[in-house]
Amino acid sequence: MSELTDFRKSKDEFFATDERSPLTPEQRKNFRSLEYYAENPQLRFAVALDEFPDQEKEPTEIITSMGDSSTQTRWGKFSFSVDGQDVSLTVFRSFDGDDFFLPFADSTSGSETYGAGRYLDIVPLRDGRYLIDFNYAYNPYCAYNPHWSCPIPPPGNRLKVAILAGEKSFTGGEAHWAVLSPTTAWSPALLLRPSLGTWPRPLWGGLRCYR
Question: Which residues pair with 62 in a beta bridge?
Answer without folding.
Answer: 70
